[in-house]
Specification:
This protein folds into 2 domains: 34 residues; 143 residues, Porin (Beta Barrel), CATH 2.40.160. 17% of the residues lie in helices and 58% in strands. The chain has an 8-stranded antiparallel beta barrel. The longest helix is centred in the first third of the chain and has 31 residues. The chain is built from 1 helix and 11 strands. By secondary structure, it is α+β, with helices and mostly antiparallel strands. The termini are far apart. The radius of gyration is 25 Å and the shape is elongated.
């Protein structure tokens, strides 16, 4: 008879432990269900054009719009779009001068988040402009600083290498929202 109360007490404590573990797992499951897969960001920045025909370098103001789909916390695919807000001259590979008027860049990037807010991205793209269009490859890094309700600030650095034309560096600051 003395063992019966100990057995009941052991079973009750085992039940509380099991319910406690279930409650501990529930927020993680709920968090997975509420994971926002879409992210949109507006960026403002400057694009450095090292090889221009008129000067040794130019800093061109630019705006960007990023649209991303996150498969999970680490991997995504993104459509990153930039417009450079100025006309300028570059030197084409054949040595001729080429005027660029408000070129528009589209890239389709593979995105990887290896650690906290650090984001690395790479992908092919295309620069559209009325004179001549260029295929390019973009590589970039940014750091997302989350500040609540799925909003973030993201300082960014990108390198675009254009085939048959100049390479550029872009430094930008983005404001993003996850949905």
């Amino acid at each position: 008879m003395k063992r019966f109360p100990l057995l009941v007490l052991g079973l009750v404590s085992l039940c509380f432990t099991a319910f406690g573990q279930h409650a501990a797992l529930e927020p993680a499951e709920e968090q997975e269900m509420n994971f926002p897969h879409l992210r949109a960001a507006v960026l403002i920045g400057h694009t450095y054009v090292p090889a221009s025909a008129t000067e040794s370098h130019l800093f061109i103001p630019s705006w960007g719009l990023d649209l991303e789909y996150w498969f999970n916390e680490s991997w995504a695919i993104g459509l990153h779009n930039d417009v450079e807000l100025q006309s300028f001259l570059i030197e084409h590979l054949d040595g001729m001068e080429l005027e660029r008027e408000f070129p528009l860049v589209f890239t389709l990037d593979a995105i990887f988040k290896p650690w906290k807010g650090l984001v690395v991205q790479v992908g092919p793209g295309y620069e559209f402009e009325k004179t001549e269009n260029f295929f390019l490859v973009r590589a970039g890094v940014e750091y997302e600083i989350e500040f609540g309700h799925h909003w973030d600030l993201s300082p960014s650095l990108f390198y675009d290498t254009r085939f048959e034309a100049n390479d550029t560096w872009t430094i930008a600051l983005g404001l993003g929202k996850r949905f």
